[in-house]
Amino acid sequence: MSTKRRRASPVAAGKKRGKREAPAELCAALRDAALRERAAAAWGGGEPLRHEAAAVEQAPFRHGVIPGFLASPASAEALRDELLGLSFHRRRNDLLSLRQSEELGGRTEPHVAALRHALCEEFRGWLSAVTQIELEPTIDLSCAKYEYTDVLLCHDDELEGRRIAFILYLVPPWERSDGGTLDLYSSDEHFQPQHIVKSLVPSWNTLVFFEVSPVSFHQHEILYEWINLVYLDMDSQAQIQEEFEERSEILLKDFLKKEKYQLLCEALENKDIQWSSRGPANKRLYEAAEEDSLPDILKKFLQFLRSEALFLLLSNFTGLKLHFLAPSEEEEEEDAGEGRAAGSPGDSSPKAEQEEADGAPCQPEQPDDVPEARGGSGTPVCAGELRRWTHGHYTLVHDAQATEFALDLLFFCGCEDWDPEYGGFTSYIAKGEDEELLTVNPEDNCLALVYRDKETMKFVKYINQRSSARLKKHPNRTGFWDFSFVYYE
Prior knowledge:
Blueprint: H1 26-30, H2 33-40, E1 55-57, E2 63-66, H3 73-84, E3 88-92, E4 96-101, H4 110-131, E5 144-145, E6 151-152, E7 164-169, E8 182-187, E9 193-200, E10 206-211, H5 217-226, H6 234-247, E11 249-253, H7 258-268, E12 275-278, E13 284-289, H8 296-305, H9 308-318, H10 329-338, H11 350-358, E14 373-374, E15 381-390, E16 394-395, E17 405-413, E18 426-430, E19 436-440, E20 446-453, E21 456-460, E22 479-488
Antiparallel strand pairs: 1-2, 2-10, 3-4, 4-5, 4-6, 7-10, 8-9, 11-20, 12-13, 13-15, 13-16, 14-15, 15-22, 17-20, 17-22, 18-19, 18-21
Helix pairs in contact: 2-4
């Protein structure tokens, strides 16, 4: 099997992941007197920052506005004066025109240093509590100066390691007619900007912060709801991608949260599920679920497997460009130079350009062991189904893949004490050869990913009579289930 070597493309720009948001806790966090008292020491006496006036909102994406952020007007003015005394360099490109200071991480000016300390220490804890995002004790801090006709056009702030962006305005009296508003855009189903739905006028000593993410808050919820949090850690994803690029395959154990996995297994026993036999016998024999008959939890899991959030996560696991927001290596190099995220207007891959030239997206011919490719113009493409395996079931080798490369996903359920001698494992071989390149054995709550090309064939080994021995330990387990999907670049 061949592997394309790509660099990581984060699902969400950040090193660590947080828990699901608890909106009922927001007001309490905003009024946390103890936290505000601890923050006082950061400014060398007195209360340095004010949080109680913060307003945290979810639309069009999660953001907050804190007027009168620096508690002391004199401190705010002194900070402005120190910043104006710095050296600024002109930045000008297609996206922006402004003057920017150097990174402020090492500056020793007293009010700059005090602000940095307050942001890194006390404010970070408050911000993490409000957003329910675990934040690292690091911060990128610089100052931008906007002059007449300067501009910063529509963009996202997605950069490696960034979870929350903020702006502290130290401006003179300002009117909307002066320009310089912070415009917040709604987005379409592909997370591309549509319309300005909120416009914030710069105001003296006001801090605005917002969550940085290439996908919607709802998509984040899908990942946090289902996946073991270890796999949402950016360092873990980088390690997974490195291993995948070396071997073209990986097995992720305990992939789902235990409680979610248990609910799936219980639902799979539901007697109301309708199973249809898949043939013809010279190619395959197994049973596939009719989706309309599935309990809600199974429908939701299939929705999860087809979600754009999972396309992005799989892109990050593998380095493959499975979603248009997952940049190719060339796009990442450009983004690093320009400071913009993949998926920005004007960014395109050769595939996307070809689709636009042809006037319709390329719909790959999916293998005939999966029922339907879900995709359309500009949308990621995958195909998959829920399968049931028991004694006598199998698939045979046949060449049905028209695309050059594909990523196979297998997720297993109900495999307690399954022995490879029973069969039921997925075997990969080179076209025209008998020797196995790779074997994927059924294993509970495991996600298998395999990257293959047109010269790689696969089959599920015939499940033989030995599998009946398992009934002694598990009387209700005549076989196992898997969710079988194929994802296309």
